[in-house]
Design a protein that fits this description.
eight-stranded mixed sheet; two-stranded parallel sheet
């Protein structure tokens, strides 16, 4: 039986409904209503069994001025799509721990055999061949995939004039030596480009790229991040299908943002680029559902809609509530405030667990985050990422000044 978009949406929505009230938007009594985006990752086994293994809610990110204070503890970006992907990476490591400790067999991952492990494909684990990965988002991803929706919501949909030359500073944009990254809604007549968050013009500037940009990149690097790429071969870690509510789906926009004939045209021949084993350009299928998230901004019933400042994190092994990119009730300066999905949280789990240390590449243990990102162990993941930035997602400027830290 084919898996339907409604079934994927229901799997994520029912998982969110099962979370405690502290993870959800709060009821208000001032003719206002909180709303939040929701995203989830669903694994399908043998084309039948659906399991939501990761979800996230939220729509905020860390201002550029606070990046140097993050020290791996504060999330740079906690938009729902980004949190869902970070939660999925956490789930993979947690699944490894349970498998290595003999606590349970896994329906989703396996140990690779000695004959499968090579110098260029050294990772000890892989997602099973009979698993497909689906993603549900309650809102169109911010950035290029939602620009038509943004235009349609304007009182005056006349495109704004784009300043020339493009490399000079513009209102609502951040300039670099080579490019300008536009804010989420700045100059919405410009499409097919990399945009930064947030969309509100009065918010502090950031260098966090839009969710459209990050999802486009994941079509090439897989869902694995720098840390989990030490453990998992990327071959089966790609999104197979992305599901959006029909009210949030604009084919022209998603084709442009994600499709092989849109802005990703420059990298649709992965073999020509010479990417390493397991990496390729895999555009996900786009499908729609009539299901709507109860806490979406379209369910306000005429009330004032206020973004919720809480973010939920879920895997089958844990759940968290975040505020300001850290655990609710903790100060951002406290290392104990780190979410399990943060850089520090993921690296702690990877390097501090005895069973995982035994299967990691020996030279990777104890490295600072900077050294890890620059190491030969992730050079293949980094090569793919750099290729995509150069050939398709031009103008991508990395968030920096939060890498020179270690667990010590």
């Amino acid at each position: 039986m084919a898996v339907t978009p409604n079934a994927i949406a229901d799997c994520v929505l029912s998982t969110f409904d099962s979370l405690p009230a502290k993870c959800k938007p709060r009821p208000r009594y001032d003719n206002a209503r909180e709303w939040t985006p929701l995203s989830g990752i669903v694994l399908c086994k043998d084309g039948e069994m659906l399991t939501c293994v990761a979800l996230g809610t939220g729509a905020k990110c860390l201002p550029l001025s606070k990046i140097p204070r993050a020290k791996g503890t504060i999330l740079h970006d906690w938009h729902a799509e980004v949190l869902a992907i970070r939660s999925f990476n956490l789930f993979l490591i947690q699944e490894c721990v349970h498998l290595l400790d003999g606590k349970q067999q896994s329906d989703f991952i396996r140990r690779r055999t000695d004959t499968e492990i090579t110098k260029s494909a050294f990772q000890p684990f892989e997602i099973n061949d009979n698993i497909e990965i689906y993603m549900y988002c309650s809102e169109a991803p911010c950035g290029d995939a939602s620009m038509e929706l943004v235009m349609g919501a304007q009182d005056d949909p006349t495109p704004w004039a784009f300043p020339q030359p493009a490399h000079l500073s513009v209102s609502g944009g951040i300039s670099t030596e080579n490019s300008t990254i536009l804010s989420g809604r700045g100059y919405f007549s410009e499409v097919g480009i990399v945009r930064r968050k947030p969309s509100r013009p009065d918010a502090p500037p950031t260098l966090s790229k839009s969710c459209s940009d990050k999802l486009a990149l994941k079509q090439c690097t897989s869902l694995l991040n720098c840390i989990t790429s030490l453990l998992f071969h990327p071959g089966n870690a790609y999104i197979y299908m992305l599901v959006l509510p029909s009210s949030q789906y604009v084919p022209k926009a998603t084709d442009r943002a994600f499709g092989p004939d849109g802005r990703m045209l420059g990298i649709n021949d992965a073999q020509r680029i010479g990417w390493p084993d397991g990496y390729s350009f895999r555009p996900f299928a786009m499908k729609t559902t009539e299901r709507e998230f109860a806490w979406s901004r379209r369910n306000g019933e005429g009330r004032e809609m206020i973004p919720c400042n809480l973010s939920a994190v879920y895997t089958p092994y844990c759940q968290e509530t975040l505020v300001g990119g850290v655990l609710q009730g903790r100060k951002q300066s406290d290392f104990r405030a780190a979410s399990r999905t943060s850089r520090r949280g993921l690296l702690q789990l990877l390097q501090n667990h005895h069973s995982l240390r035994l299967v990691l590449p020996k030279g990777s243990i104890g490295l600072s985050y900077t050294d890890l990102k620059n190491s030969s162990y992730v050079c293949e993941w980094r090569k793919v990422k750099d290729d995509v930035k150069a050939k398709a997602l031009r103008g991508w400027v990395s968030n920096q000044k939060d890498e020179a830290w270690s667990l010590n």
